[in-house]
TrEMBL record:
It comes from the Bacteria. Residues 1-58 form the HTH lysR-type domain. InterPro entries: LTTR (IPR050176), LysR_HTH_N (IPR000847), LysR_subst-bd (IPR005119), WH-like_DNA-bd_sf (IPR036388), WH_DNA-bd_sf (IPR036390). Belongs to the LysR transcriptional regulatory family. This is LysR family transcriptional regulator. PROSITE patterns: HTH_LYSR. Keywords: DNA-binding, Transcription, Transcription regulation.
Length: 292
């Protein structure tokens, strides 16, 4: 089967529009329609249906999505594997949530390239559920997440702890007062949100919710406000543009590395984990006076 049929199917699924999918794929709309029709003939069922001018996946289409994504990822990895340069010996696929790329993985990626130039790297950002699914499908070698996996086929190793502090663009001691205007909520995982809900049951609704800590930082620096952010990220702005809310508790977040127990690249994974821990890129070196 032509791999481009699946690529076209996923693009239509993402855009919910044949015309927009055609623009993104640099094809005519007729070509996109023909590819979807060809795929439907192969599958033997309709993949999309129109409901009040809104393109929706059928039940068959919904079932195909994960398989199509896995096939495309496997194909890209296969192409990368067979096209390795002479000096490169292995391809490692690493994934993490968007927040963990900011916090840990970006620096790790740079260090990996310096220390292990023979490794070719595939870097991905997904939600935790997708990362775990890709580990099980063997399209991902290593994933960094906030919650350890409970799947018996996967190993979860705690690699570091990130300390999150409440910062505000004005000097305020009271956390409820700091969060009353322009509080930005960041997805630091389920445990963080449970702790936050217990600590601040009457907190005002956030003005913005994001998965990226840098988006939150840029927003409050521009418009004023507050957010729970890692000390390492806000250190350059402390006591000038940002101030710690002194009566707000520091909330710790554990970070876990997950990988399949039967992964044949265990030695490479072990080396990467050792590198992350040696860099201590996510362990906040917080001054004692900050640790309230």
């Amino acid at each position: 089967m032509d791999i481009e049929l699946l690529r076209t199917f996923l693009e239509v699924k993402n855009t919910r529009h044949f015309g927009k999918a055609a623009e993104n794929l640099y094809l005519t709309q007729a070509a996109v329609s023909a590819r979807v029709k060809q795929l439907e003939n192969i599958i033997g069922a309709q993949l999309f249906t129109r409901f009040r001018n809104n393109l929706q996946l059928t039940v068959t289409g919904e079932r195909l999505v994960n398989h199509a994504e896995t096939i495309l990822i496997s194909w890209e990895r296969a192409k990368q594997d067979v096209s390795l340069k002479k000096k490169q010996q292995q391809v490692i696929a690493i994934g993490g949530t968007s927040g963990l790329w900011d916090l840990v993985l970006q620096d790790t990626l740079h260090a990996m390239h310096t220390k292990y130039p023979e490794l070719a790297v595939r870097a991905e950002s997904h939600g935790s559920d997708t990362l775990i699914r890709h580990l099980m499908e063997r399209t991902l070698d290593l994933a960094l997440v906030y919650e350890p996996s409970k799947i018996t086929d996967l190993s979860s190793v705690e690699i570091s702890t990130s300390e999150l502090i409440l910062v505000c663009t004005t000097q305020i001691d009271n956390p409820e007062e700091a969060m009353a205007k322009n509080y930005v909520s960041i997805d630091w995982g389920l445990n963080f949100h449970m702790s936050y809900a217990q600590l601040f049951p009457d907190a005002a609704l956030p003005v913005l919710h994001t998965t990226l800590s840098r988006i939150a930082l840029d927003f409050i620096l521009k418009f004023g406000g507050s957010a729970y952010l890692p000390y390492r990220l806000v250190e350059p702005y402390m006591d000038t543009e940002l101030f710690q809310v002194t009566n707000a508790p520091v909330i710790s977040r554990k970070i876990y590395a997950c990988f399949h127990k039967d992964n044949l690249k265990y030695k490479e994974i072990e080396s990467i984990l050792a590198l992350i821990q040696s860099l201590e890129v996510s362990v906040e070196d917080i001054p004692e006076e900050i640790k309230i």
